[in-house]
Amino acid sequence: MRKIFGIIAVMLFVASCAGDAGKLIKPSRFETEVDGKAVSLYTLKAGDITMQVTNYGARVVSLWTPDREGNLEDIVLGYDDIDDYLKNKGERFLGAAVGPYAGRIAGGSYSIDGQEYVFPKNDRDNTLHGGFAGLDRVVWDVAHVSDSLITMSYYHEDGVEGKPGNVTVMLVYSLNCKNEFSVYYFAQSDKKTHVNLSHHSFFNLKGEGNGTINDHVLQINASRIIPVNEGLVPTGELADVEGTPFDFRQAKPVGQDLDMTHEQLAVAGGYNHNWVLDSVSEEGEVELAASVYEPVSGRYMEVWTDQPGIQFYDGYFFNGSMKGKKGEPYASRGGFALETQKFPDSPNHPDFPSTLVYRGAPYHHRCVYSFGVK
After folding, report:
1. Whether residue 200 lies in the annotated active site
2. Out of 73, 161, 208, 339, which one is annotated catalytic?
3. Active-site hit among 194, 199, 200, 216
4. What is the pLDDT of residue 90?
5. CATH number of the domain that 176 lies in?
6. Total tally of structural domains belonging to the chain
7. What are the pLDDT digits (tens) for 255-273?
């Protein structure tokens, strides 16, 4: 496994090139210990973009990209001090790696080979993004850092919050001279368990704290969504988007159809659903899943993945009580998340893509966020 990870790191490092920094956060604001492990802040640069990452929750803290005039803005929501993340003020998952199971598990349980496993319920009657002790709330071990790449790992022990298997999770965050931010996950377990990992940055292409994302123009290459019940867990159906506000096959502003009458908008309060991607790539290959364009700045973003689904969450839970790095409040729909993954609650839906991993059957996941201007 170390050999595999080392090869990946070398390949990504070779592809990188130098970039310029924006107004960066001082690393000293993140230097602390959590559960006896050191927390730090790391700066990566390549092409026209600069990113800062902390190993607490493997979080992207800042991401600076230029607009069409070359002006840099930090386009991810977050805090400029580790204490604000530790206090869990407002939205918990800002910029984090989420898992061991991204998304909701209905009723906080699933069964493997007839044995039921029960987990703490941290989201009404469900387990969300790994429970109370998910990957966003631990200190990851940093294996390697270069100018444009960081590799981290975490050993998730068998039985933590009821989850089966000793699971080793490894990830690579890298930047390259094509202005791409790549995420690579690898996980293996010593016995059968379910793994579904994702990345949870909230983006605002105007810049964090600069209003809402309602006018961002979104396209999602998907003809179906997974409807949810009042607990925001899948009903088990796959619904066609044709003629609904969930049809983003042709690019349109995020806020364009939010006033339409539709049961799923009413149930969720907005967009917080998993889209079933039309093009499922061959193993190891990534396909274009979604794109976002912000017309004032000209910033443009694409999301590529080898996963079958993408969760689009429009950030409607933000209510202005949180203030970000510039001291500006995050209003409702102040940022969006596009989380590539398999499907929420797959362990309880045999017809969904399997998330089962076990000895000899590891987990792989690639996602690329590509940035440019129009």
Report:
1. yes
2. 339
3. 200
4. 77
5. 2.70.98.10
6. 1
7. 999 999 999 999 999 999 9
